[in-house]
Design goal:
The structure is a single chain. This protein has 123 residues and is mainly beta. The chain has strands spanning 3-7, 10-12, 18-25, 33-39, 46-51, 58-60, 68-73, 78-83, 92-99, 112-113, 117-121. The strands form two sheets. Strands 2, 4, 5, 6, 9, 10 and 11 form a seven-stranded mixed β-sheet that branches. Strand 4 and strand 5 (46-51) form a beta hairpin.
Length: 123
């Protein structure tokens, strides 16, 4: 059974850092485009970052550019989202998603989704 499991969320003060992990089971992430999305209460799900399977190209939302970094470790079958300089507006449930495509997209057109991990940025 194909499954994605996110971890690494929590409560952090503004300016702090967190690293989210997205571990896959039941399939190999090498051939999948991976996206990170977030959804805050009362808001639509938005694309945060994604990484392609073909050439490892990465994309970021303007709101996180320069602060977040997406990476993949195919040996561990895991994708990471390093989040630095966190702001209260980054508070949301973060989801990873996978799709059997070479190029990733920043819209939620992915076949497989994790259950989400809560990130709260507050003093």
């Amino acid at each position: 059974q194909l499954q994605l499991v996110e971890s690494g969320g929590g409560l952090v003060q503004p300016g702090g850092s967190l690293r989210l992990s997205c571990a896959a089971s039941g399939f190999t992430l090498d051939y999948y485009a991976i996206g990170w999305f977030r959804q805050a209460p009362g808001k639509e799900r938005e694309g945060v970052s994604c990484i392609s399977s073909s050439d490892g190209s990465t994309y970021y939302a303007d709101s996180v550019k320069g602060r977040f970094t997406i990476s993949r470790d195919n040996a561990k079958n895991t994708v990471y989202l390093q989040m630095n300089s966190l702001k209260p507006e980054d508070t949301a449930v973060y989801y990873c998603a996978a799709d059997l495509q070479t190029m990733c997209v920043m819209t939620p057109e992915y076949d497989y989704w994790g259950q989400g991990t809560q990130v709260t940025v507050s003093s």
